[in-house]
Amino acid sequence: MSDSSSTFDTSVGGHGPSDAGNQTTPSLVGGHVQFVKGKAEQAIGGVTGSAAWQFSGDKDTLEGINTMKAAGENRDGQTQGFGKVEELAGKAVGCEGMEKEGVESKK
C-alpha cells in the first residue's frame, strides 16, 4: 500500500505524486488519453462495484477534461487539428470538446 501522506498534483497536466517545479505544457492528445483512461476505470468500477476504481476513474476523467481545456485554449483550430478524423473520434468516445475541435479544424 502506498504512503497515505503522499499528495497528488491535481493541477492541469498533473499525473501523479506532486513533483515541485515539474510543470508540463498541456497536451490535447494526453488529455484525451487521460479522459478515455478515466472512462474505462469508471466502467470497471461500475461492473465490479469497486469504489476505488470509480474514484480513480472520476479523477482521471476530470484531469483529462482540464488538460484538454487548457490545451484547447493554446490551439489554433485553423492550423492545428485533424479535422473530420478528430470529429468522428470525438463522437465515438463521447468527447464533445474533441468533436468541436475537429469541426473547427476542418473549416
TrEMBL record:
Region annotation Disordered: where it falls in the sequence: 1-29
Organism name: Gomphillus americanus
UniProt name for this protein: CsbD-like domain-containing protein
Biased composition annotated in UniProt, kind: Polar residues: 1-10
Source species taxonomy: Eukaryota, Fungi, Dikarya, Ascomycota, Pezizomycotina
Top-rank lineage group of the source organism: Eukaryota
